[in-house]
Amino acid sequence: MLYREAGDFKTSYHADNQTFPIKFDRIGFWISLAIAFLVIPFVINDYWANAIFVPFLIYAIAAIGLNILTGYCGQVSLGTGGFMAVGAYACYKLMTAFPDVSIVIHIILAGGITAAVGAAFGLPSLRIKGFYLAVATLAAQFFLVWLFNKVSWFYNYSASGQINAPERFVVGVAVTGPNTAPWAQYMICLVFLTVCALIARNLTRGTVGRSWMAIRDMDIAAEIIGVNPLKAKLTAFAVSSFFVGISGALFFSVYLGAVEVGEAFGIQKSFLVLFMIIIGGLGSIFGCFAGAAFLVLLPVALKVLGVDVLGWPTDLVAHLNLVIVGALIMFFLIKEPHGLAQLWRLAKEKLRLWPFPY
Amino acid sequence: MKMKTLAAMALGATMAAAPAMADLVIPDLSYRTGPYAAGGTPFSDGYQDYFNLLNARDGGIGGEAVRIVECETGYNTEKGVECYESTKGEGALIYQPLSTGITYQLIPKATADEIPIHTMGYGRTSAANGEVFNWVFNYPANYWDAASVAVNYLLDENGGSLDGKKIALVYHNSAYGKEPIRTLEALSEMHGFTLSQLAVDHPGQEQKSQWLQIRRERPDYVLMWGWGVMNQVAVQEAANINFPMENFIGNWWAGAEHDVTPAGDAANGYKSLNMNRVVDYPVLEEIKAQVHEAGNAAGDGSNVGKVLYVRGMYAAMLAAEAIAKAQEIHGVSDVTPAMVRDGMEALEITNARMAELGMEGIGPEFSVSCQDHGGAGQGLVQQWNASAGTWEPLTDFITPDDSVIAPLVAEDSAAFAAESNITPGCL
User: Fold this and answer.
1) Cα R_g (chain B), whole angstroms
2) Structural domain boundaries in chain B
3) A38 inside domain
């Protein structure tokens, strides 16, 4: 009744092609943006920022990156953790080498460096596909972690091999370092996520995105109709790594502040982001948000419920978390391979007909 | 819809956090899951049992009951941060994360929030310089002390000279494992031994190539900075290549019962450092009688008297003594984190006090000051007796070589101070 196309007339091509063709969606989008930008920063505290919002925003950027590569272009990657590490270490080296340049520029440059590294590791995708490509990206994951552990130049020769984010400011407000206010941490991640999501959404609707999807659906057919696989695959790797690099840089500088490569960017990080897009939905920007929110919130929610409310032992809850995530992944793979995003789409379809389904 | 669930959770979290504000809140950032659980579990059991004993026997510390808030970190820094944020709001007095990675994470945060951190024998070594690290303490000993103690022990074994000897360091490839390298390099220059470094990646189940290299290079001694499942694998691999166990020395995080029992008799003779003596202390009987029999045991109660259990209990004792000291200094029983910090800085542990607490000789005597947050730095060497299933102390507490460590601490802490714009000084 409320959610419908009827009466929402489009009078121009521009209006017909907009991101949210249904008015209700548009209103919802602006309302959630307004809440995110105008309400949450004023009520957020340290716990909500560090335990929920900042990790959610950062993982959402990483999930968007991986979703472009895996969901839109069909190239399976297990190297997300390694590419996040490239972003983090690039950001660290830039922060310490050019302390006077704004952190925002450093983060974007870190994304650019990661894009170059990602494109280089994407070269094998021109020859190999599927599982074999997954193994090649796995090699990237292990190589990059090994590299950042082995070459002490990357961590400025510190004794412990850790990198620490020095304090940096955006328009006079600290966004990294221990004295950062929770709202500042939240806002910088939110701004990056919003811009990344808009770019990703519009890329996937345009020529580039269509060529990625053509490659994903059938690469030989795509080549025959004139899609250049070299260009499509390498741009997918570069754009995907750009987002993943930005998320790695934020993860290190804004969220954790000190990072150890093997622990923070190991293979489990690659899997975590992969699970996010599987549960959220392959080939959907909304799915990235849903998957990231789900996997960030689930352990916290379980902990609050199990330990704080029910008083269960902490180890039992931690194990239960593993069991539940594993079961959910199997459930989604079998029952709903398109993830939460598909459930959301179905719900919307039903809503359009409500209350008179036929 | 998402916002609604968030709001519901916020409500749940605040409701859960609301009650009982007057207690002394001690967070226990434990890990009972994952590849490091074997070490995390007994430590956490000992830590909690001691506070439970204080509650049962003395009604807490200075008449204030202790409330333990346990939070599972899984030795993971992200979860560690989440645990820190979720417990600090409850009035946490002191953090002991039992993880070097989490410690690095918490040092700047806790300093900004003004909550003391105690990292006993782990964490950032240069935190021993209290003028730079006002809120971080690592008494009674740190990694660089451990490296020096191990080398001093080997010097003793070899009549005072290690000239021309080969020593291999097998280390966990993380901040924890990399910590001793700087000291060992300085010591190798000083004493003329060659040091080779073999990194083992997290979690440490894969060590075949490292031990093949040891078999090829035939070092005289192997030192190990290991933790969790890595220790068991290393002891087994050493046995597989027939490396003489008495020349294999682990640090104090690589010398507990569960590290050697899987290798069976082959582990006989393996040595490790220890910073706390393990004997049948009277206090263990009290814990059994007043905590375990009352049904308040942390975990399953099977770890009493083990190496890491005793160390956890020792850590709890040091925290409790610091809180008692803070109550004495400030004349109030309901202390704040800042007061506890003052108590830690004025802490003095004597043999008489340890005996009074039913744990005579558990650690060396030491006192803390504003300049020195590092304590005595002593450690002893113990050896595993596989047939008896016990760790036998070989030496008394060995003193490290401060002439090597002090300049390194000064250098590293000065670098940190410059990096984070800290002007060294006392609070």
Assistant:
1) 21
2) 23-141+278-376, 143-277+379-406
3) no
User: What is the model's pTM?
Assistant: 0.91
Q: DSSP letter at B180?
A: T
Contact A288, A296 (CB under 8 A): no
- The DSSP 8-state label assigned to residue A53 in this structure reads I
Q: What is the ipTM of this complex?
A: 0.87
Task: Assess contact for B228 and B36: CB atoms under 8 A.
Answer: yes
Q: 3-state DSSP call for residue A35?
A: helix
| CA atoms in the 13 A half-sphere facing the CB of A85 | 29
- Which residue among B76, B104, B173 sits closest to A162, beta carbon to beta carbon? B104
pLDDT tens track for B98-132: 999 899 889 989 999 999 999 999 999 889 999 99
Compare all CA atoms of chain A with the CA of B415 and give the residue at the minimum distance: A158
Say if strands B348-349 and B366-367 run parallel, antiparallel, or are unpaired.
antiparallel
Residue in B with minimal Cα distance to A256: B105
Per the structure, how many domains does chain A have?
Answer: 1
Q: How do beta strands B380-385 and B271-274 pair?
A: antiparallel
Peptide bond into A182 cis (omega under 30): no
Interface test mutation site (partner A, options B83, B86, B113, max chain A beta carbons within 10 A)? B86
Judge whether B386 and B264 are in contact, CB under 8 Å. Answer: yes
Q: Which parts of B115-155 are beta strand (E)?
A: 117-118, 136-137
Segment B241-267 shows an average pLDDT of 94
Q: What are phi and psi of B167, to 5 degrees?
A: -125, 130
A318 touches B33 (CB < 8 A): yes
d(CA A59, CA A72): 18
Of A4, A29, A31, nearest to A18 (Cα)? A29
Q: Which of B40, B175, B36, B32 is nearest to B103 (CA)?
A: B175
User: What is the per-residue pLDDT across A41-67, written as a single tens digit (0 to 9) for each?
Assistant: 999 999 999 999 999 999 999 999 999
Average confidence (pLDDT) over B249-274:
94
Residue A31 lies in a domain: no
Domain B23-141+278-376: CATH architecture, name and number where available? 3-Layer(aba) Sandwich (3.40)
E-assigned strands of B134-191?
136-137, 166-172
Question: What backbone phi and psi angles, to 5 degrees, belong to B303?
Answer: -100, 0
pLDDT tens for each residue of B161-185: 999 999 999 999 988 999 899 899 9
Contact between residue B29 and residue B71 where contact means Cβ atoms under 8 Å apart: yes
Task: Collect all residues from A whose CB is shorter than 8 A from any CB in B.
Answer: 35, 46-48, 50-52, 55, 149, 159-162, 164, 166-167, 177-179, 256-260, 262-264, 266, 293, 297, 299-301, 303-305, 307-309, 313-315, 317-319
**Are the C-beta atoms of residues B364 and B374 closer than 8 Å to each other?**
no
Chain B contact probe: residue of A147, A263, A302, A325 with most B CBs at under 10 A: A263
Please check whether residue A185 is in contact with residue A254, taking contact to mean a CB–CB distance below 8 angstroms. yes
Yes or no: say if A196 and A209 are a contact pair by the CB < 8 Å rule: no
DSSP B422: -
Q: Which backbone phi and psi does A322 adopt, to 5 degrees?
A: -60, -45
What sign does the dihedral A163-B133-B42-B51 (CA atoms) show?
negative
What's the distance, CA B193 to chain centroid? 28
Would residue A303 count as lying in a domain? no
pLDDT value at position A142? 94
- Kindly give the parts of chain A with pLDDT less than 50: none
Residues of B in contact with A297 (CB under 8 A): 5-6, 9
What does the block give as tokens for A27?
């209103």
Taking one residue from A and the other from B, the number of pairs with CB-CB distance under 8 angstroms is: 122
Query: Residue A1's pLDDT is what?
Result: 63
The domain B143-277+379-406 having CATH identifier 3.40.50.2300: the answer here is yes
d(CA B327, CA B330): 5
